[in-house]
Amino acid sequence: MMMKSQMQRCAAVSRRSAVRVCATGAPPPPPPAAVPVAPPPVVIPTPAPVAAMTVKDCFTFTGPGPETMNGRLSMLGFVAAIGAELTSQEPTLSQFDSAIYAVIATAAVFTVATIVPILKGANLKEAFGPFTPAAEQVNGRAAMIGFASLLIFEQVTGKALL
Questions:
Q1: How confident is the prediction for the chain on average, in pLDDT?
Q2: How far apart are CA 107 and CA 86, in angstroms?
Q3: Containing H/E element for 40?
């Protein structure tokens, strides 16, 4: 029960405002206890799988097959031609004539080894240590120019470069 002085105080407050406020001296209720919330799970996005290509898509003008395959074969052929010239002092075309089946078999193996991952949908934009697709493309183009220059030089001069 309220005492008379408290009632007078409440009455005085109520005359001045529209809201009646009375203090009874009871402590306020405690705030609700904090419930621990688990953090949301971390979702690591996975790259979208690369769709497998058809043979036709692989060998289109803008497809990955022709330049990758020709670049790899040019790198292999240029290094093999220079190495064989250093040891035998013979021009490239005469080296080719003496080992035609080995050259064709090596080219076929490298061609299949280049095309199969492309047809299976391998990610060709992924680097493998220092071996990046951009470096392979630049080296392949340089090897194509170097191999063509080597053949032209040997045809014009009639002798081996080295």
A1: 82
A2: 22
A3: none
CA angle, 98 then 114 then 116, to 5° = 125
Classify the phi-psi angles of 37: left when phi > 0, otherwise alpha if psi is within -120 to 50, otherwise beta: beta
Find the length of the chain: 162
| 3-state secondary structure labels for all residues of 86-152 | HHHCCCHHHHHHHCHHHHHHHHHHHHHHHHHHHHCCCCCCCCECCECHHHHHHHHHHHHHHHHHHHH
Helix, strand or coil, per DSSP, at residue 1: coil
Question: For 23-52, what is each residue's pLDDT tens digit?
Answer: 666 777 777 777 777 788 887 777 666 667
Residue type, 114: T
